């Protein structure tokens, strides 16, 4: 049974980070406000979780300007996608083994 937890990634234990990655897995990129609304988060909460995922190399942050307003986009990296898929597969294998 302990082997089932071997590929569980602690970075995705938070439901917020799990949600961020789930959204980014099915979208090329997502802007800050859309992600905030989809996950019902505050600015600070989203910022801290995206920063943590960015530091791990799982997502990248791109800042642009639309007119005079700054706009922040997030995108999952190849490494982030692979880590997330491995995590989801580990959860599925654990559920199947119980």
Automatic annotation (TrEMBL):
It holds the Pfam family HTH_34. Residues 16-95 form the Winged helix DNA-binding domain. InterPro entries: WH-like_DNA-bd_sf (IPR036388), WH_DNA-bd_dom (IPR027395), WH_DNA-bd_sf (IPR036390). It comes from the Bacteria. This is Transcriptional regulator. It comes from Bacteroides stercorirosoris.
């Amino acid at each position: 049974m302990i082997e089932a937890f071997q590929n569980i990634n602690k970075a995705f234990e938070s439901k917020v980070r799990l949600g961020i990655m789930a959204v980014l897995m099915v979208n090329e990129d997502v802007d800050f406000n859309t992600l905030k609304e989809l996950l019902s988060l505050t600015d600070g909460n989203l910022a801290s979780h995206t920063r943590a995922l960015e530091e791990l190399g799982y997502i990248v942050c791109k800042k642009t300007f639309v007119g005079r307003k700054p706009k922040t986009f997030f995108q999952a990296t190849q490494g982030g996608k692979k880590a997330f898929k491995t995590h989801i597969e580990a959860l599925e294998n654990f559920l199947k083994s119980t």
